[in-house]
# Entry
Amino acid sequence: MMSNKETALITGASAGIGRELAMVFAEQGHDLILVARRKPELDALAGSLTLEHEVDVSVQAADLSVDGAADSLFDTLADQPVDILVNNAGVLSGGWFLKMDQQAIDNMIRVNMLALTALCRRFMAPMLERGSGRVLNIASIAAFQPVPSLAVYAATKAYVLSLSEALAVETEKKGISVTAVCPGFTDTDMLHGMDGEKSGVPDLAVLSPREVARDAYAACMAGEAIKVPGLGYALTTMVAGALPRWVLRRVGSLAIHSGRKG
Ligand SMILES: NC(=O)c1ccc[n+]([C@@H]2O[C@H](COP(=O)([O-])OP(=O)(O)OC[C@H]3O[C@@H](n4cnc5c(N)ncnc54)[C@H](OP(=O)(O)O)[C@@H]3O)[C@@H](O)[C@H]2O)c1
# Structure
């Protein structure tokens, strides 16, 4: 059964925040296109969402680190209008920059920046023609300051935030909204993987993927340019915005080390 709500394409829907985003969009009656590499996870989620919410959910297995993946996805979906593009897929590798594996660095740049940019360009073009559409890009609080030992990851997220804000202004009079969501530490495999175990971030500072997804959905539908989920993180970000860069550089380092064991 087709719903009359806008269709959302969600990348990284096989786990974590993306999976919760898929649930929130389905609860609100949106048809969905779910994208990630792990097809069995996507198929299982699609099955349960279709049953529970009577929405149409299709699945596209894709590795967004591969050159041309965004183009292939767009071409495959040529007949299916995408009203809402949700760029959620992301990867994180940390460590001292000079000791990092080059492949891990390239993978972050490919998934977090190159694929996201190409997906925006391809899927926003028909939105422009139709005079309507929404884009929801998942950045991070790491976008607001440099983060020593997560240098490349934070830089990719600063890129996502900057790109999203610029596109929001470029397209605001064309019927398209672009929203950047900047979550803090969120309880997903990414956080658990930061130190090879659940990192030592205090429970109070950890958001649930559910609350991030809910806030992200609301901000996207309201056409907000930037959303920082959770009051604590929103206030911290506001205060941080008033600090000089030399202080921010130190704060980024402290935040990440205080969240780690040992
Ligand atoms: N968790 C946090 O603390 C946190 C904080 C701020 C921002 N974020 C951001 O939130 C987003 C979601 O992260 P998460 O915490 O939910 O992480 P997660 O649980 O590790 O999920 C990451 C998702 O991205 C997909 N993905 C990774 N590499 C991919 C590739 N090459 N091609 C296609 N899909 C790929 C994964 O699917 P497959 O493995 O099936 O491909 C998975 O669905 C990311 O952009 C992340 O940077 C997370």
In short: Residues 11-18, 36-38, 62-65, 88-92, 111, 138, 140, 183, 185-186, 188-191 surround NAP (CB under 6 Å). The beta strands are 8-11, 32-36, 57-61, 84-87, 133-138, 176-181, 226-227. The chain has a mean pLDDT of 93. The longest strand covers residues 133-138.
